[in-house]
Structure formats: C-alpha cells, structure tokens
Task: inverse folding
C-alpha cells in the first residue's frame, strides 16, 4: 500500500493553505476530494474525445460511448452487481432514490400501503417517500432510534406486515456515522417478499458495498462521495425489478420506437437514462473506483478504523465535549457539541484555523430533534486524513473553548 505521504500527494487540494494555514479537510461526509487520476480522466474526456454518447457513428462518439459503457462495467464489478445492465447512471443518490420512489411508487403503491424508513435517514431518503405517500395515500413508518445513534431493530421487526410494500434504509448514518444492520433488515423483509432499497451514499466511501452479498433490491450512491466527480450517481437495481418498473423520465435514448400514437421503451439500462447523460462524470467515477481499488478497500477500512479510534479517544478526553453517535459499529464520523458553545461558532472559529468541518443538521433534522439539539459539528474523516490532523482539530477545539471561557 502507498504510504500516507504518497496518498496525500495524489490529492492536489490537500496541499492547499487556507488563511495561511494548512488545510485540514474533515468534511468528507459532505463530499470527498479528488485524486489527480480522476481530474485527469475528466480532463481527458473533455480535451481528447468529447462527444455525445450512443448517438453518432463517428470516431469520437464511439470512443466516448465505449468509455461510458466501460465505466458502467467497472461500477458493476466494484459493487458486485450480477450484470452491468443492473447499473443505471443518475445524477446522484438523490436522483436515484427519487427514480425508485416515482417508478416503484407508480407501479406498486396503493392507498393504505406502508413504506418503512429509519429515524437516521438523510432527507433524501425521507422526502421522496413522503411525496409518494401523499400522491398515493400510503403511510410512512419509521424505525425508531436509540441514544447511541443506532436503530431499535426489534421495533423494525414489529413494523413489518402484509401492508409493507418497500423498506428504504441508509447503510450508514451521515449525521452520526452509525452503520446499520442492513443484512438483517434485508433478510427480514425478504422473508415477507418485501424489497429493500439501501442508501449507500455514506457506505460507498468506506468501501463497504457488495450488493450481491447484501442481496438488496436497490442500492444508491453518489460519485462525489467516493472521490469521483459531482453530478453523477448510481442506481443499482435487480434486473427483475428494473425490467418491470416504468421509466422515470421520458426523452432521448430511453426509447425504442416513438410515434405520436405510442412509444415503446429501450432495454435496460437505457430505459432509465433519458437525455444526454453526464458521461464525463461517469468516466471520472470509474477512475475514482480504480483509485480506491488500487489503494485497497481493506487497507482503507483498517486505516479508517485506526483514525476513528484515535479521534474518539482524543475527543472524548476533552472536557465539555459531547459526542453524538456512540455506536460500536460506525465509520470515522464524529458529531459533537461543546457545552455552552453554538455549533456555528465552533465551526467558524475552526475554519479560521484552516480546519473544515460541517455544522448544522446534516440534512437529518429528525436525528437532531431526537437529541433535542439544533445541529452538531461534524468531523468526517477518511483514509487520506492523518492523526496529526486530528491533533490539530483537538488543539482547535481547545482554542474555541478558551475563547468562550
Ligand atoms: N443519503 C445520505 C446518507 C447522504 O449522506 C447524502 C448526502 O450527504 C445523500 C443521501 C444525498 O446525496 P446527494 O446530495 O449526493 O444526492
């Protein structure tokens, strides 16, 4: 494995200074930085073979179409999908969840049906289901959470019934870092023939994805959270579902034959890819997955476990600091508050020291409501971060405290 110096030199932005201080980037939960190979691959598309995909017979169009379809294959292999036709390119996790909420909802949801989500969801996995429930007169059920930031799994089992038509849960909580027991959730749902969507927006970054082993029916993620470009994402779906579901959007490329009387649709995966797709993004995403594979998912996971342990130890020792999300099974995300100091103040002062953290509700307002707070400071760490950077954060927090003393 590359050493940490080599890894960091792969990411040009990590050498940056802000306010004359070395950048400490702890906002990886919101978006990750990009290695040079990803930047180069997008640059190469735009400078060497840019052309719309699936449309022309000319040289450049062939090249971009081939690279785009190779990217699809790469994603399929990375997540261990059965076939590449089960991989749909979208604009991101939000786009992918909305696709299923619309498409599955149109076909299968009727008044009185129930959809189960968890308390820990990002708004992207709450609002599309609420909109669907409003459209169809269905009911949203929520798996409750506990003080540690986990879900109460026994309550999930009680919620499952013949009225349940879909379960949609996050693999990892973005606000607290908790890893949810998705395998158990899927097994229980499948025993009652209920499909499960897993929101992998946070899971993918930490390498924990194997849709074959998980046996989920749908899996969604965003390129920008796994060191790839923004504006590109993935909807994985089992072929049996995707072939049955109606398309989400209509337009070019998703059609077979169009007349004013009737239109027939293209085969998978194109049925779900209407209009000009973000092919530079897709190709950049494939480069990002190549990068992650070259570093090694096991290596990433080991390194992140060490960083989590180090950060938790150091930060727990700070007087007046409370960590939200204390599950034993979590990614290196530390959500915290300092006693008597507003999260925005903490975030703004840390920023002046060159330390980028996220503040606010993290698009997970119900989680904040559960704890009776209006937000947290979130340090989301990933494998290119270092223990020295965690030391800088700890020193920064002490400085914040001293300013408010
Ligand atoms: N789901 C989770 C768990 C997330 O963390 C996020 C983004 O933070 C999303 C969904 C939405 O992702 P995007 O904004 O890339 O569509």
Result:
């Amino acid at each position: 494995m590359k050493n940490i110096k080599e890894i960091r030199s792969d990411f040009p932005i990590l050498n940056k200074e802000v306010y004359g201080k070395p950048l400490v980037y702890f906002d990886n939960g919101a978006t990750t930085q990009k290695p040079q190979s990803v930047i180069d691959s997008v640059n190469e598309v735009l400078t060497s073979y840019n052309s719309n995909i699936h449309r022309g017979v000319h040289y450049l169009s062939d090249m971009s179409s081939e690279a785009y379809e190779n990217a699809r294959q790469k994603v399929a292999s990375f997540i261990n999908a059965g076939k590449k036709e089960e991989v749909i390119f979208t604009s991101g996790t939000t786009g992918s969840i909305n696709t299923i909420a619309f498409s599955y909802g149109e076909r299968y949801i009727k008044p009185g049906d129930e959809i189960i989500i968890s308390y820990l969801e990002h708004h992207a996995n709450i609002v599309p289901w609420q909109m669907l429930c409003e459209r169809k007169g269905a009911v949203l059920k929520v798996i409750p959470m506990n003080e540690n930031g986990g879900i109460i799994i026994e309550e999930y089992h009680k919620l499952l019934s013949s009225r349940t038509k879909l379960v949609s849960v996050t693999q990892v909580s973005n606000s607290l870092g908790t890893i949810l027991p998705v395998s158990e959730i899927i097994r229980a749902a499948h025993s009652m023939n209920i499909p499960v969507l897993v929101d992998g927006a946070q899971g993918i970054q930490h390498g924990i994805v194997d849709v074959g082993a998980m046996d989920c029916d749908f899996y969604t993620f965003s390129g920008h959270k796994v060191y790839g470009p923004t504006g590109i994402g993935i909807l994985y779906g089992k072929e049996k579902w995707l072939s049955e579901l109606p398309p989400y959007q209509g337009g070019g490329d998703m059609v077979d034959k169009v007349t004013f009387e009737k239109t027939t649709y293209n085969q998978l995966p194109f049925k779900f890819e209407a209009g000009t797709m973000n092919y530079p993004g897709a190709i950049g995403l494939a480069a990002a997955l190549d990068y992650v594979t070259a570093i090694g998912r096991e290596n990433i996971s080991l390194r992140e476990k060490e960083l989590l342990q180090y950060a938790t130890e150091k930060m727990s020792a700070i007087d007046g600091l409370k960590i939200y999300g204390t599950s034993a099974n979590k990614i290196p995300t530390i959500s915290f508050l300092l006693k008597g100091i507003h999260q925005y103040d903490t975030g703004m002062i840390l920023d002046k020291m060159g330390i980028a953290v996220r503040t606010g509700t993290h698009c997970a307002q119900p989680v904040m409501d559960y704890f009776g707070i209006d937000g947290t400071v979130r340090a989301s760490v990933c494998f290119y971060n270092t223990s020295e950077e965690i030391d800088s954060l700890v020193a920064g927090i002490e400085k914040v405290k001293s300013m408010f003393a």
Q: What stands out?
A: The chain is about 40% helix and 15% strand. The chain has a mean pLDDT of 97.
